[in-house]
Structures
1.
Amino acid sequence: MANEFNFDDTSQIQIPLQLIGQVIGQEEASNIAKIVAKQKRNLLLVGAPGTGKSMIGRAIAQMLGNAHTEISLMHNPTKPERPLLEARGRAQVMQKEKSPSKQKKEGSILRPTDVPSFVSERLGFKCKNCSSYSSPNTSKCPSCKAEKYRQAAGPFEDLLSGMGDSEREDVVHTTRVMNGKEELVLFERFDDFTIRALDQKDLTQMNEAQGTMTRNVIVPLGRSLFVQATGASETELLGDVRHDPYGGHHQIGTPAYTRVIPGAVHEAHEGVLFIDEIVSLGSLQRHLLTAMQDKKFPITGRNASSTGAAVRVDDVPCDFILISAINLGDLDKILPPLRSRIAGNGYELVVNSYMDDTAENRQKIAQFVAQEVRRDGKIPHASKKAVEAVLAEAKRRAKIADRQNNAISLRLRALSGIVKTAGDWASQEGSLLIEPKHVALAIKKGKAAEEQMSEKYGSVFNAAMSDWASTMPAPADKNLR
Ligand SMILES: Nc1ncnc2c1ncn2[C@@H]1O[C@H](COP(=O)(O)OP(=O)(O)OP(=O)(O)O)[C@@H](O)[C@H]1O
Ligand SMILES: [Mg+2]
């Protein structure tokens, strides 16, 4: 069977460009991975260490292509501790990058009667006393003769004057709710008769044109769509707001919108959120469930004693594919609603730990060796005989770990380690190829500590005993021996 390989060394083996094509022996998982990427489903992978679970997660992220949306935060002049959120598409981001300085200040020109009355009052068009309209340049209302606004005067003026209680303002900031989102609107006096209204889009364009854009991109377009959140803390998973000792003071503090940090759930927007050992998230599983259900999750300071706790951004998008990997024994520790959420909109899959010893599968081990050599980049390719040696080791391992006689092990991380160590020996020797002797040496070196001990001492138990005996103090009284 061994001389069936039709190559001299692994440099002649073609490797699929796509990562999913490089996953070996997991045909069912690979097919489901394609569906998961296309239909945006979740996936729970169950199986032995080093069999390709993380690799499948990466392959799914690769199939998703590039992100489409950038998420950024902007200063909110009316409520700095509630930064304004903007999600922009690729075209929008690119367009802004191409022509940053040509945007003009436009907005809409309105009559004073068409804006909210507090706006026309504060801009000086409307009299608070009799509600009639007049030019903002006349400080006395032509109809009722009342002072329209407080004149800049002595400190007690406002206590004495009962009428004009506010100064004339040039700009009024306010917010409105558009499509369920709070949005900034700015009104300013345009001329004696009209008011200009600038909505958030106008303001963004204007700021960008002036080069004063105050934007904090928290989830950039060029991000990786594979986000790993294994062992993540609450802040890593859900985001946070940094502390500012000056409490975001407008002159000496750090503005709130620049202190907001996204969580892994946000960074994985439009991509894959990969979590190994999902049960280790403990109570965070509940938040993860909420994020998955709502596809958005607020970012707020998570330390109650930090000034960050006063800052909050609602509805930050987090539409991700959840891929989690777990040991078979831990299945029952996943929060049941979370597990049913994954299964209800996705797949649960047990990955293989071995494959049958067939001609096709033996060829796959050759592909695997070629892949490992290319990925490593620092070791020479393997000769046909060296591949045969790796294959023999894979068969031996299927026998030991899975008690399978006619099978090839898919615990490939361990085999990958052997290929790399063999490669190191080969290049140390100046050999142009990895040869069987290098593989043999690597297998010997790569043996787990238990295996080495049992070879040395006969069994792990004996080794442990001799270790224990050597740590025992010699009894002082020979009668005690
Ligand atoms: N099915 C496979 N096909 C090809 N290479 C594999 C496969 N499984 C593992 N490998 C090799 O082993 C390495 C480690 O695999 P991976 O990290 O995907 O394993 P895992 O199942 O996630 O392990 P763990 O349970 O320890 O997280 C991969 O980078 C790859 O080099
Ligand atoms: Mg893994």
2.
Amino acid sequence: MSETFKFLLQNSMCHGVGWSRGLGDFLKENGYGRALILVDQGVADHSPYFWEIEGLLKAALTGLDVLVLRGSEEPDYDYLDQVAGQARALQKSDVLLGIGGGSCMDIAKAVAVLLTNPGKGIEYRGFHMVKVPGVPTVCIPTTAGTGSEVTINAVFTDKKEMKKLGINGRYLNATHAVLDAEWTMSCPPAVALSSGMDALTHAMESFMCKQHNGLTRVFSAAAFELLYKSLPSLVDDPQNRDKRQDILLGAYLAGVALFNSGSGISGALSYPIGVHFKVPHGIGGAVFLASVVEYNIKRGYTDYAELLDRIECNPGMSLAEKSKYFAELFRALSDKLGVPKYLDQWGITRANLKEVARLLIPFQGAFNQNPVEFSATEDGPKFLARHVKEGTSL
Ligand SMILES: [Fe+2]
């Protein structure tokens, strides 16, 4: 069967433990003389690798500015404008380096276009609103998960409207991505796990969603295999750099699959509970993922057999049996990674379930991407109820 689809992959990628030690030469080879680094505060304050690379870049380049971004909190448009203002006040750079987690890379990609396009960030909210290409950007993830180094999205919260809607589409890709596990070694374990859960959510949702195609499935399945085999090392063997490198690659591949296909129930649920209850993005998606797998299997979906084949050989099983077994393995992986079962700790409880369920209604379009029908008004509340203590029904 021949498929009709479009596939986008617009940046170069450099891969390897310690690769960043050659970053100065790479930048010069690409014609970049002066650079501006946007770096997460946690990385700037605590990462010896950052201090080493900063020193190497200072020696290699004609000029280097560094702006340190506030850590942890997911960015809003006011903060984006503040950073863009600081960057606009500096001497013009040939290249912008975003070194940090997904939020930092999103800010770097958005600042890159705000350096060449006038006005405030929120004026470019939506899809394909940016008119002029930004300053070339190198994104270097220090937590493996969001895939921002390869996607065409930069997510920001609008504090006034209490919703997350970023700057997306044309010119929102980094020019180059650097996957180097040395950067991830000083990432706090809880952040590494939450980011890993985000990558797993991207791999699974891009695999399942109705908009997948033959090529996105190649990326989703490869991402899943890498993540399934390497994420447990965050618990058992956190200093293993090769496994960390595999997680970075898995997150990258999952990002490619995600923005070329779509997401689904888990990704959609993570948005309202992130904005209103501050559930971290990675956890907010992963908390529902095993339930989504089980929900779909109960309704006859068997494509998970393909993912099982990537991680185990079970020649005697039917597609349905493979899918059921996959659900068990997936649940075990979620438990191993410490994916929370309940949302009570973020203030979503049996007492406010009805209010929270109402927040899901605008996301019906995203739920429609799930391969099995899912109603925001009927299935949404039941789903939430499964994830609060003593709350199997409303
Ligand atoms: Fe995500």
